[in-house]
Protein 1
Amino acid sequence: MEIELRLSLEKKEVPDLSNLPFGKIFTPHMFLMNYDEKKGWHSPRIVPFSYLELHPAAIVLHYAQTIFEGLKAYAGVDGKIRLFRPWDNIARLNRSAERMCIPKVDSELALKAIKTLIWIDRDWIPKERGSSLYIRPFIFGTEGALGVKPSSEYLFVIILSPVKSYYEEGFNPISIYVTDTYVRAFPGGTGDVKAGGNYAASLKAQEEAKNLGYTQILWLDGIERRYVEEVGTMNIFFYFEDELATPELSGSILPGITRDSVLKLANFLGLKVRERRISIEEVLEGAKSGYLKECFGTGTAAVISPVGKIFYKGEEVLINNGQTGPLSRKLFDYLTGLQYGEREDPFGWTMILENPL
Ligand code: COI
């Protein structure tokens, strides 16, 4: 399918991209594609960025039939634009689609849409190290119908937002609050896909954490409320004396692409890496005894975010004295080195954007 280009007639001036709030500035164009039962996915097009018109009974507004992805394009030190494992985000988008009864999109077309849209708005990719162009593909049910059922119509949208770091802390350690009041997910639920509703369900706990002065919430498993699952918008890693460990994909954890990259990278760097169950007691005891040397979160938006402080049941413990540890720094430098084209990519994760038009 050809992507129709209906570009803006005026050239929008690129604002100052040096001091960017996360996800509040958008580039001048967006990608749209519709689905209905007769035509399937059709009319892929790139149009000027604008508000969307929706039926007030659109299924997404009532029953949250919506999925999304997050990936980034980077302005390399060699002047080239790089994408990081975009095919993995598209594959996950289609896994989320399957779980949420949304029709899958053609992977090649989705990749072409991402590449074409970025190419058109490439002047909006911030050049500063640590900044990037955040790419947000999402699909939602648009049929106006109040019965609870999968929508018969969908919209696939891609928008782009120049961004800096996700947290105000930048690369400085964040603090996390462990909730035993709320759960994010449980086996058989939707925790392992990127469904909008997962994030709506996390807001209350996140707000409580914030009111108590913590940056993010850390979720425990939904059954025993004992095993660590993930942090608000990230997966989580613990660097114990003898291994780098992260919770195994239990069915209720999001299979992060940065998570997978860190596992492979750490292994490549010669570390002992394990995906396993990690109890909150092990983490707290480890922090107190020094057996836990570092903790960090991973995510596309968050990259690698060191965790310096954990609060659980009235007790606050420091990890690595609340400082960024050498392993977090090393992995961050390596990963971002690949993304900004400073390092050779032995993994084949980066894709250089050539003119797709
Ligand atoms: C990402 O890291 O891309 C995410 O999807 C997190 C987002 C909810 C900000």
Protein 2
Amino acid sequence: MRRQIVAGNWKMNCDLSETEALINDLKAQTIPETTSVMIAPTYTNLQSAVKMLADQPITVAAQNMHQASNGAYTGEISAGMLKSIGVDHVILGHSERRAYFKETDALLAEKVSTALENKMTVIFCFGEELVDRTHGREFDVVKDQLKKGLFHLSESDWGSIILAYEPVWAIGTGETATPDQAQEMHAFIRKTLSEKYSDAMAQSVSILYGGSVKPGNAAEIFGKEDVDGGLIGGASLDAESFMGIVNAFA
Ligand code: PEP
């Protein structure tokens, strides 16, 4: 059975004291055993988060990492550095990294390989832009991103991959894909995986939806057959709204 997952991407929000306060708010909540919960604070607060959550069923993930294992890459963070502080999950390919930091599919393929070589689990983000959807090419774009970013992996590598389909037009905009639009794309993603690998493999991969998920719309989206949870931005910055989403699974 696939894992139900809700992951909070805190982006460049929360300094150390705000991070600790938000984690304490989350620690006061009961996490349902059936759902894996993750949070991705910014780099400088990862170590504190790991320590604070050591005895809690909440996983700490990084928001990015470099593709090289070490070297002259000023300002960058490696997989080994993350592992050394107890972080073994990483978000790669977020649309903000693709748009503002010009991360290409080829670069992301390298980052994914480096993460897996370091025995990390990757939350791989991808999704079409509004212009793609208005031109009716959203399925082609999504397939291409999967192909270029992940199809170099072997079937067994996929045990360490969580997919996050995030239509760019729905991120931070208040605009959400309808539950039917999300289901349609998730089913397409699963079919694409099945054609490249196997049906068993396609059925085993968790596919999260991301894009303006809130406590009020999460249940309907998560209720769809091929949606296994969500990657949450804005609504993950408040413990009550994040937990409203975590508790939205039927
Ligand atoms: C995101 O940044 O991954 C995201 C889904 O953001 P939001 O929930 O704010 O749309």
